[in-house]
User: Fold this.
Amino acid sequence: MQVFRSYFKILRSNRVAILWNLGVFMVLAVFFSTTAPETNEDMFEPTRTRIAVINRDPGGVLAEGLEKHLEQVGQRVFLNDDEEELQDALFYRRVQYIAIIPEGFSQDFMEGNEGKVETVVIPNSTMSYYMDMSVDAFLNTARLHNVHGRSHTQTDLVRLVLSDLDTHTRVVMKQSGVSTDSEPNYQYFFNYCAYALLAMIVSGISSTMIAFNRPDLYMRNRCAPIPQRKVSLQILAGHGIFALACWSLLMILAMLLYGRSLSGSGLTLFYFGNTLAFTMVCLSIGFLLGDIIKNHNAQTGAVQVITLGLNFLGGVFVPQEVMSQSVLAVARFLPSFWFVQGNELITSLSDFSKASIMPVYTSILTQAGFAIAIAAVALLLRKERRMSQFA
Assistant:
């Protein structure tokens, strides 16, 4: 077991880099999981858009009624009727919607004219559609009372319209199956495990590979009485134990931080299995990298590029929901994408039927496929290099 013991001596000499990466992970994971917004899936509350209403029809009762209605459905910000002030408020997002009621609006509407309201909105803003619907609802309801009802004054018309629009529908949020957790902050922890696993495992395994692949040490091992197959098996055993130790450490941290809520969700084994699959991917990447690079200077740069690249493109640091379709098309060829997607699928589980669990298994098996493919490439390159050395 001389090779096996030497393996962990080399790891101990690189413990500073490994512990540094673990510390960075802990800061990121704990910070984002504790500052994540709390959600409650049993409650619904409509969003109130920040609006400004400019009434250029003073004394118009109908215009004042529309102004009051918009105050009820939006969050009003009071601005002066000044073009520059309105433009600045919209540019700096102090308001998202500006409604301008033109002069003579009330009288024109009562005479059967269209009664148009001018609007200024943020381009492509979804909230503007909701406010447009609120304006149309007021005008259409008023038009129905004005055309088909008895003759009304503007005051009566506004009272009837506001009474009609004051009707609210009770919203009940329902979910099929068993609810997992209303505050799955541990999902952030497991997503950031991708960073910690990549940084620690790739750094540790590649460091030992660089040491064992040094020409003088490699040739000395070839001359040793220990069979080369036994040497390789002991190194592989060291890789596996080190990778499992990193995985176990993170899972223990997860239980310490979120033990009660995580175990109560019924998703613990799914998260652990998904993270274990990505651990095997990290092991394969570390094995491949350690067999390619020759010195620690190149190793530092390669580890940083691989770790940050996979995490950014895979959706660890930047949510997959905000990525463009072109970036997602590239990300699908990365194991980190399937790891993050697996975590999201696990978090959204509401029942444990075969149809619900199958996508999770697909993500885990896809990661296993990446691990096997990367390991196969590493073994092929290793074999070709050894054959060229002794050709």
